[in-house]
């Protein structure tokens, strides 16, 4: 059953009757280009078929009632003029999203919403952005603005993370889930938000491997990385690390740690550009080589990987061989890896990866995202 159908069925159980509409926002996997979005760089995410659906119906009063079947404390309700709580998990995100949307697209009445998702949470597949964008779309639809520019929703969803979750994230996740199309890669320029779709060659398979490593204290480490990048840019006298030429970048004015962070960002932007070209020309060997280099850079220069994921990525690379590659994906510090291989090899590769043992000794979980 699709997420929309599940949400519609659950809506009837929780609220009784049928919803007036349903909306959907996907999750995403980032193929290459991590920790560069907030440095105005290039990223190459791919929206997934799995994501978050919201079934909605207007109410006669001024209350917003949200039932999130898959979340802790599944029901949350508030008045249209109540202030959102801060740092209070999904309640803050949901309430914050409704408030920011409402400021631009006022609701004439309350709304009841049933949220249902099939994305594993906290696994680097943007469950949070998917949740916020889906809620934003539901508010837009219920206030009669279903045709709102999705970039607007993406920007508001990013602001919600900043203000109500305390995560100083970039815009990649929100753009990928609000604007991108499932199964196509999206080369997004995070400086001006221009993008171009790149078809994943039908001979390629993209898969997501859950490492089984829970990410801890990630928000603090994420925000710290962002500050380090901004400090490096200031010392280099540029508006953002995007402005540093990868061939002539001179790190001598930076302390060694900042120099490593800057080197990751500057080299990752170049890798992303080259990877998009390799994908457009079907050159899987070059794409795989760039993925491996991106992983090493995340591990050594950005220090945003995890020893268990490093071990898994080496193993996945060995299984795939030169026709493809693997790397940690998303914010890092655990979570998931993304791997690319030939579709003709995918059954063998998936089977061999499943035999690999994660941190708890169970086999690794693999999801074929496309082809
Ligand atoms: C998280 C953030 C994104 C991005 C990635 C790393 O997913 O939400 O904005 O910075 O990490 O590329």
List the helices and strands and how they pair.
Blueprint: H1 3-15, E1 21-32, E2 42-58, E3 63-68, E4 75-79, H2 89-104, E5 111-117, H3 127-142, H4 150-165, H5 172-179, E6 184-189, E7 194-199, E8 204-210, H6 218-236, H7 256-280, H8 284-301, H9 307-320, E9 324-329, E10 336-342, H10 346-355, E11 365-370
Helix pairs in contact: 2-3, 2-4, 3-4, 3-5, 4-5, 6-7, 7-8
The chain binds alpha-D-galactopyranose.
What does this structure look like?
With 371 residues, the chain is α+β, with helices and mostly antiparallel strands. It is 42% helix and 23% strand. It contains ten helices and eleven strands. The strands form two sheets. Strands 1, 2, 3, 4, 5, 6 and 7 form a seven-stranded mixed β-sheet that branches. Strands 9-10-8-11 form a four-stranded antiparallel β-sheet. Helix 7 (256-280) runs antiparallel to helix 8 (284-301). The longest helix has 25 residues, at 256-280. The two termini are 20 Å apart. The model has no long low-confidence stretch (mean pLDDT 94).
């Amino acid at each position: 059953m699709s997420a929309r159908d599940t949400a519609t069925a659950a809506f009837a159980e929780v609220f009784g009757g049928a919803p007036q509409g349903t909306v959907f926002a996907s999750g995403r996997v980032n193929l290459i280009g991590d920790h560069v979005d907030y440095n105005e760089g290039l990223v190459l995410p791919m929206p997934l078929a799995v994501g978050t659906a919201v079934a909605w119906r207007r109410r006669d009063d001024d209350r917003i009632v949200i039932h999130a079947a898959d979340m802790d404390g599944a029901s949350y309700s508030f008045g249209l003029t109540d202030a959102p709580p801060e740092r209070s998990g999904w309640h803050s995100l949901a309430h914050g999203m409704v408030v920011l949307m409402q400021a631009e697209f006022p609701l004439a009445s309350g709304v009841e919403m049933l949220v249902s998702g099939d994305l594993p949470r906290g696994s680097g597949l943007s469950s949070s952005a998917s949740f916020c964008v889906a809620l934003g779309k539901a508010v837009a639809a219920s206030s009669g603005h279903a045709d709102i520019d999705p970039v607007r929703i993406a920007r508001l969803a990013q602001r919600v993370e900043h203000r109500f979750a305390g995560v100083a994230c970039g815009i990649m996740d929100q753009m990928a889930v609000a604007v991108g199309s499932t199964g196509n890669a999206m080369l997004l320029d995070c400086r001006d938000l221009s993008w171009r779709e790149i078809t994943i060659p039908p001979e390629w398979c993209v898969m997501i491997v859950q490492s089984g490593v829970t990410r801890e204290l990630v928000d603090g480490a994420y925000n710290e990385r962002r500050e380090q990048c901004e400090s490096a840019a200031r010392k280099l006298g540029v508006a953002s690390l995007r402005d540093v030429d990868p061939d002539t970048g001179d790190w001598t004015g930076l302390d060694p740690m900042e120099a490593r962070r800057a080197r990751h960002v500057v080299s990752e932007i170049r890798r992303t550009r080259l990877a998009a070209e390799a994908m457009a020309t079907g050159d899987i060997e070059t794409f795989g080589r760039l993925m491996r280099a991106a992983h090493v850079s995340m591990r050594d220069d950005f220090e945003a990987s995890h020893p268990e994921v490093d071990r898994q990525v080496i193993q996945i690379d060995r299984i795939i061989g030169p026709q493809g590659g693997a790397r940690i994906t998303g914010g890092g510090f655990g979570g998931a890896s993304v791997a690319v291989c030939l579709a003709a090899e995918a059954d063998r590769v998936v089977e061999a990866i499943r035999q690999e043992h994660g941190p708890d000794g169970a086999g690794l979980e693999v999801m074929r995202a496309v082809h």
